[in-house]
Amino acid sequence: MEYLEVQGGNPLRGEINISGSKNATFPILSAALLVKGRMHFSNVPKILDVLTFTKVLESLGVGVEEDTDGFTLDTSKDISSIKDSHPEEHNLRGTQTLLGALIGRTGEAKLSSLGGCNIGTRPIDLHLKGMQALGVDLKWEEGFLTAKVKDKLQGNLIYLDFPSVGATENIIIASTLAEGETIIQNGAREPEIRDLINFLNACGANIEMNGSGIIKIKGVNALKPADYSIISDRIEAATYLIMGIATRGDVKVRNCNPYYFEPVIMKLKEAGAEVDVYDKEVRGRFRDHIRGINVKTLPFPGFPTDVQPQMMAFLSRAEGTSVIIETIFENRFRVAEELTKMGANIKIEGNTAVITGVSSLNGANVNVPDLRGGAALLIAALSAEGTSRIYDPIHIDRGYENIIEKINKVGGIVERKAESRIL
Ligand code: EPZ
Hints:
This protein is an alpha/beta fold. The protein contains 13 helices and 24 strands.
């Protein structure tokens, strides 16, 4: 049984380079299927989910060559429209955008489940609403979602009841080569959506996104290959910024875009941290104390749900009481139970967590419930007194490139170990 052994109590001090965005990589590599040719993608994070995703692409007939900075995809051969579940795909929500990509490329798609961390039921009704509006027939057959273009992909006006990131991405991808214009109302506005649009426009698409969730896609006949560099990972940047302050240290995150995680910066300042913002760097320092604050997660540009568990760990040692309201996913407080094992005082009532700050946390044996919960446990263990064991670290490896090396380089003491089985 693998675990991370963490010595707590050392303030982290130094600089951490931020990798490319996990959640921009999936839709962009999916959208590459709309283009025939070779394209190089740089600044791609070499994390477990991305490596699994490239194996899924290969299973569809895409040529994949890895290099130090990213991958070259060759999409010139025939592409299969059937994506079976890959053995390592366990919780990979990232493959969801293959739905729109395969429909756009081949006119049909057959996908096993759309996966995702168990932070909620992860419905796909908005994905289906969008595909149907574009002229696609969809049905579930023996555990597979099967999609087929009835006649041709036809642009349409689509209102999203919720600004779903995945559904917005699938509609953009599927409508890029459709006839006519598609307008998405109440679309998601996350930076990863902007990055997907920038990539597609670099290939010759005609897509505009204004600041209020209106996205206009004018269908084009064909796209041409373009090389592309993925934006930085705003969730990774926010995670390390919080980690530095939580350990009473001083960490600068580099190669990032502060605008992408502005709400996190503002809330850290509100809690009493010193945060200096530069063009492509943000420095976070612990000053003299951290006070309790209130946080409510919202779609971009609100406070990101993917930083909520990390904030819960951070506020566990704040002076006073904090309230976190999670409005995006219905089961994203699972890490609270593990934090309680370390001495945190957290009460959960529905989508509200009330955190009564404690002066210190103590090292403990804990289990990672999901990707961002794992990051939260690392933050807590590094700022706790004593040693912790964090079991099931594979969830963390899914979304954080070289996380142990990055933490130890700034003074953390984290070691990956395995318990020898007795029988
Ligand atoms: C993406 O998931 C991200 N994953 C998530 O990051 C992120 O938390 C989420 O967007 C919100 O920002 C990837 O990009 C691979 P949604 P996605 O569709 O697309 C409801 C991480 O830690 N909904 O915006 O699945 C849904 O139930 C991961 O990196 C519907 O009701 O998120 C949820 O309540 C976790 N019907 C809300 O929308 C639908 O058809 C947000 O889901 C689709 C979604």
